[in-house]
Specification:
0% strand; globular
Length: 180
């Protein structure tokens, strides 16, 4: 009997959580999920043919809009780019004077991150696979595709789902700012 009661309480809580998520007022979403550097986000999204809400979602998931964020693996800045990824993008886009410290610059970090997202979208033809590659690396996604197409890491599957949820949240909360 006690287990059944816990199950019912759990279902009620889950239903309430879904209701709150689906009906959160816009002010709450804006408070919980800030948007910074919106002109840079919109400009580079437009330049690279990306949805600005996708760029904002990746930035939030990667750094919570902290331009000085650094991960234990060495990823840097708003879009958490590895210095080697930044160097590769600089080499392909004519960034002759590029240095790893430039990844702390919001404008350059968002530009390079947007370029990289566009590259991944073009390569994989799928937002989910592009986000998986952004999170786990292209070599892993290439291997997963060879093995049958499933995203192989649970944390990468969770990352993809979270970014796609955030994309919807940013579209809903910041439609005007993102030009939607």
């Amino acid at each position: 009997m006690r287990l059944a009661t816990l199950g019912i309480v759990g279902l009620v809580f889950a239903a309430f959580a879904v209701y709150v998520y689906e009906t959160e007022p816009r002010w709450y979403e804006r408070l919980r999920y800030p948007l910074r550097y919106e002109q840079i986000v919109v400009g580079h999204a437009e330049n690279y043919g990306l949805e600005p809400q996708l760029v904002a979602a990746v930035i939030y998931q990667e750094s919570k809009f902290d331009a000085d964020a650094e991960s234990p693996s060495g990823a840097v800045g708003l879009m958490q780019l590895l210095p080697s990824t930044g160097q590769g993008i600089a080499d392909r886009t004519g960034g002759d004077a590029w240095t790893p410290e430039d990844l702390h610059n919001p404008e350059l970090n968002i530009r390079y991150g947007s370029w990289y997202l566009r590259h991944l979208l073009d390569k994989y033809g799928s937002e989910a696979l592009a986000l998986a590659a952004y999170n786990a690396g292209q070599a892993n996604v290439d291997r997963w595709q060879e093995e049958g197409g499933e995203i192989g890491f649970p944390e990468t599957r969770a990352y993809v789902e979270r970014v796609q949820e955030l994309k919807l949240t940013y579209a809903r909360a910041y439609a005007d700012e993102l030009g939607l």
